[in-house]
Amino acid sequence: MKKSNIFKDLKSFLVLLTSQSVSTLGTVMTGFALIIFAYEQDPTATTITMLTVTSLLPSILLSFIAGTLSDRLNKKLVMLICDSVAAMATLLMLVLFLSGRLKIPYIYIINFLLSVMNAFKAPASYVATTLLVPKEQYVRASGLSEFYSSVVTILAPVFAGTILTFGGLAAVLILDLISFLFAFSSLFFFIKIPNINAEDTTNKESLIESCKEGFRFLANQKALFRIILFFAFINFIAKMGGYGMLPAFILARTSGEQLTLSIVQSAVGLGTLIGSVLVTLAKPAKSRTRVIFLTCGISFLIGDIGQGLSHSLPLLAVFGLLSNLPLPFLSANLTAIMRTKVPTEMQGRVFSARDTLQYGTMPIGLALAGILADRLFEPFMTKISLLQQLLAHVFGSTGGSGIAVMFVIVGIIGSVSSFLCLANPVYRQLDHEPSNLSPSLYID
Prior knowledge:
- Helix content is 78%, strand content 1%.
- By secondary structure, the protein is mostly helical.
């Protein structure tokens, strides 16, 4: 394909990606603001991790059902409904705040509702992207998605911190609502998502049977199933380290300093931005699995171990940037494998089954991380003992030192596990298996 045709072929996808990224920017700004709000009410690691747990758990538990329904329903309609309900939930949060009744338990409940909507929207978005993007552009489209995501990650903390300072939480929530309106209007008026020209087998099956079909497909794909289980483990330990505990770590280290958290999270986004540009411009890898495991291991080494050993803002920011630079290569190649190996008419079910397995460990890891930080590692690093004194020379003994120890442990486990997978021949099958997709599946 000629380079001049690349963005023409991706026009509809780019409109969708841009509008949804604006909405995501508003959502992430709200998430950042709520972390600061909640930490001011109850400055513990558990409080912060529970914000993420309530945002993840419903989406994961419902994803396999939502994916099956997504295969049966109009993708655009599903996305519009989910955006509308999410906007109403944000409006409710604004009303509660303005009336002085916004409490942490209410935030958990609203996060729960938003997560339910995401459970249905995510598989519809997966399939919509597949339908809007030519097969040969899957890796590039994934790279662009990572690029937009990283821009959001860079801008959200800066914008949220500035708006919080001058306008407060209410201003952040109002901007979030405006971003929802922009995304809804763009999708409704300007994007046409093709239908799937495939035999409608899903409507002949019961809902439960259709749900099971996604798991059966994965169970029959040995290499694909193995790599999903591997990342289920990786996601579990990652949420106990820098990819789940970074806000709690920085706020504990700095006694709740909002600016430091903004700078480090923006640096994380900058690393992803650089990586996404590189993966978008790079030629497709000969071995996608090799790229996946190498970048995963490197990210753990630099991120968790590097940040766990850091005591200054510049180092935290630098390691945050460097650890996230390889991740777009991991994500783009893993997503390309999934899109290539799964038939389009089954992607809602299969991707949701994948999400249930691969991401179902994340809330467990986060919940456990908060408990371990508040009840074991942080108290241990404040009580004098021989081991504590030895560790204090490396990690310090002030707030956050126990979480720093957790980071290093996670970094060692994650990097060693990733590098060991490079020698496993099972995963190499994913580099050679033929595609299951067919261009004939699409109709206008």
